[in-house]
Amino acid sequence: MTPKQLAALHAKCFSQPRPWDAQEFTGLLNSNAVFLCRAAYGFALGRVAGPEVELLTIAVDPDYRRQGLAHDLMRDFEQMAKENGARDAFLEVAENNIAAIGLYQRRGFTQTGLRKDYYASLKGPRISAIVMNKPL
Q: Which CB contacts under 8 angstroms, 24+ apart, belong to 93-102?
């Protein structure tokens, strides 16, 4: 997937937090620490820093959800992270993103923190981020 394709899919999946543009994806993909797991209708982007990996974002086309694609992307993300030397994974997820929280819990992530009012909201109050971790 090209940065433009990644940005188009990200925009299809997210309105808040705001979707990333092609330039942001290009910058991330030019980093040696960043890796991309792709599927036909989705992707996961991670960044390894020492013994940790951060899930930067994951996106599955809304027309192809509920088919296990996100689960498969998370499995691939975790495997690639281990291959790059990570021993622990972490992520942030909007506290109102119930589907994603469920996915992460099924993959063995547990909540380890809360970032109050972390995400801007298009309308209304800011949204807090749940911090989740998992040993790999």
A: 93/129, 93/130, 93/132, 94/16, 94/17, 94/119, 94/127, 94/128, 94/129, 94/130, 95/127, 95/128, 95/129, 95/130, 96/127, 99/65, 100/58, 101/130, 101/132
For 83, the 3-state DSSP assignment is helix
Domain count, the chain: 1
Q: Which pLDDT score is estimated for 84?
A: 92
Q: What phi and psi, each to the nearest 5 degrees, are found at residue 80?
A: -65, -35
Q: What CATH number has the domain bearing residue 70?
A: 3.40.630.30
Residues of the chain with pLDDT under 70: 16-17
- State the residue range of the domain holding 41: 3-135
Active site (catalytic) residues: 92, 104
pLDDT in tens, 43-54: 999 999 989 999
